[in-house]
Design a protein that fits this description.
CATH class: Alpha Beta
Structural class: alpha/beta
Shape: globular
CATH superfamily: 5'-nuclease
Distance between the termini: 24 Å
Strand content: 5-15%
Number of domains: 1
Largest sheet: 5 strands, parallel
Strand order of the largest sheet: 3-2-1-4-5
CATH architecture: 3-Layer(aba) Sandwich
Radius of gyration: 15 Å
Number of helices: 8
CATH topology: Rossmann fold
């Protein structure tokens, strides 16, 4: 099966929450009539679940565990599941730390490494700047950009 693009966890979250500012264009990726095959990195489901069920004043969504899991399962049913092996995850984290990486951008690094490990040349994200800076050799675009069709290969390819 040829996978056309890997979806970032922020796209996954946006497609599942109607109140999210990017809900429409994110959901359109899955409901378009194009025969596009998307993948999602396994750890992105954990990241999305955590975000969707978070509690407190600064928690934007606050879905119940049942609501969040049902929503995530609905996306899993129509996308490919990819991931890194345990050694690949460890090596990516080590490399990130050794390069001075800090904080949550590690999750972006893991997503990009999963795309590269599975030969997926395109990442769809709402966080284009971070992802492009980590993976200049991959095509990184927003859901709106992806909907316009294939993009030119990044410089140097």
């Amino acid at each position: 099966m040829k996978i056309d693009a890997l979806l970032d966890s922020n796209v996954l979250i946006a497609m599942l929450v109607e109140a999210h500012e990017h809900h429409g264009p994110s959901l359109d990726l899955l409901v378009s009539e194009n025969a596009t095959q998307f993948a999602i990195a396994a750890h992105s489901y954990a990241e999305a679940y955590s975000t969707l069920t978070r509690r407190g004043e600064r928690a934007p969504f606050q879905l119940t565990p049942q609501e969040a899991w049902a929503a995530l399962e609905s996306v899993r049913a129509v996308t490919a599941l990819v991931g890194l092996t345990a050694p690949q995850t460890f090596e990516t984290t080590r490399s990130y730390a050794q390069s001075g990486g800090i904080g949550a951008r590690l999750y972006d690094r893991l997503i990009g490494e999963a795309a590269a490990a599975h030969g997926i040349a395109r990442i769809v994200t709402w966080n284009v700047g971070h992802m492009r800076s980590l993976f200049p050799d991959l095509s990184v675009e927003t859901p709106r950009e992806f909907g316009k069709g294939p993009v030119a290969a990044p410089a140097g390819q």
